[in-house]
């Protein structure tokens, strides 16, 4: 009987340690994304650059005014240059509505629905999909795609 109790205690403690490690990793991943947006909001490409892998792929999908579905690809350097050109009078705020973080080894996937405000005025909504890689202890964004829409944001809020 005592062997069973010891085995159960060992199993429970292993599960607790694994859950704590996963929460620690999720917190580190969330911190990377929050740092990325901190840089965006401030117009500070140096802050953003710290979160991006050197070979990141960046894409945006949207529906244009003619109803055609579009996909645009942007380079890391262009994204950083555009952010650094932000006018000091412009205020960017991307309000993340939730985080859905999945981790398997050194790969993480994060889904973040959002609302974007320019100078305190609603601009658009959508969702971001981040893929992150644990580069020997440092989580880095390796792929970022966002979907943008100007209307029907209520459906997005309902999915939270």
Automatic annotation (TrEMBL):
It holds the Pfam family Lumazine_bd_2. It comes from the Bacteria. Residues 1-19 form the signal peptide. Keywords: Signal. Coiled coil: none annotated. The keyword Signal applies. This is Nuclear transport factor 2 family protein. It comes from Pseudotenacibaculum haliotis.
